[in-house]
Amino acid sequence: MTSCIFCKIAAGELPGEILYEDEHVIAFMDIMPVTKGHVLLIPKTHRENVYDLTSAEASHLFAVAPSIANAIKDAFKPAGMNLVQNNGAAAGQAVFHFHLHFVPRYDETDGYRPTWDQK
Ligand code: 5GP
Ligand code: ZN
């Protein structure tokens, strides 16, 4: 039995507000959105972070990313969007199952600054 929360969401054992799902990946709303419409995209197979992804898994994640970004854009009408991905605690990773963040951006005071832009 896994103790990984994202594996449990992927398996339907924990509730998730699902935006997209296919055989290999699932996208769901972040439980603590940093901005309105914050979505996470994960592989259904447990992979800790980018170091563990196969090329095929990485390809598929980015193959579906544009349609997920467009769905968020259509639903929430943000002014922009950050795609962010953290690897390792030192980089801010808190859940150790690979996830790509889609963070819609509304303006400079919307509550989110990428770590490389925190002046
Ligand atoms: P990290 O810091 O690892 O890049 O991001 C982890 C993200 O997972 C955070 O944005 C956090 O709000 C989100 N998160 C943590 N636990 C849950 C959960 O149980 N459900 C959902 N939907 N998101 C979660
Ligand atoms: Zn997992």
From TrEMBL:
Keywords: Methyltransferase, Transferase. Its EC number is 2.1.1.-. It comes from the Bacteria. One of its GO terms (molecular function) is methyltransferase activity. A motif (Histidine triad motif) lies at residues 97-101. GO terms for biological process: methylation. The keyword Methyltransferase applies. Residues 5-113 form the HIT domain. This is HIT family protein. It comes from Sporosarcina aquimarina. The chain holds residues 1 to 119 of 143 of the full protein.
